[in-house]
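Troubleshooting: if your tokenizer reports a length mismatch, compare against these two reference records.
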Amino acid sequence: MDKLTIGLDWDGVISDYAPALSFLVQLFQNCVVITLNDDITNTIASQTLHLELAQLKLEICPDDRIDDYYRWKAEMCIKHHVNLMFDDDPKVIFACQEVNIHAITVREFCYKYEKPW
């Protein structure tokens, strides 16, 4: 079976789950980081996810699409043939599902502030 393309949001997803996602992305041919965070670069993303630059694409939401960022993210998934998208925003998940992109909601890592035990 051919490897597929994974789409990942930065804030609340890669930022909170980098070690697990750096493992998961190894199972995919390509990775697309689709984010509103304009501080992220290809180098930062590739180093964080332990990917070669050739395996990684970075899409940062343009200012004129901020109001409908969730639709823009779904459009980026279509553009890059994303098979599975991870985002922490339910609007993005629903927008992806509307265009037949599999999407999973990731919730903020609740234990990063304090351990429950």
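Reference record two:
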Amino acid sequence: MFKLTQKLKRTKYQIKNWARRFLGNNHHKLVLNAQKIDHLENLLANQPNSPRLNSWLRRILRQREKLLMYNQVLGHTQKKRMAYQWRP
């Protein structure tokens, strides 16, 4: 039984670490994405007909849309959780 509890504790810490790295840093990902978009727009001002830069910008914009949609869904579920937890 002791070994099982130790394994469960280790698993809990590993899952927490994974969740922080992949789910908890969306704000940071959005900031980096905005910086990339600014950089690409500056590059496109110099080379407006570059297919490589245009496709890169489209890909980055799609990535930003997905991050924003995920933030909306995550924020909505967190608000629901907080509403259920807080009761005067």
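Descriptive notes for reference record two:
- The radius of gyration is 20 Å.
- Residues 67 and 73 are 10 Å apart (CA to CA).
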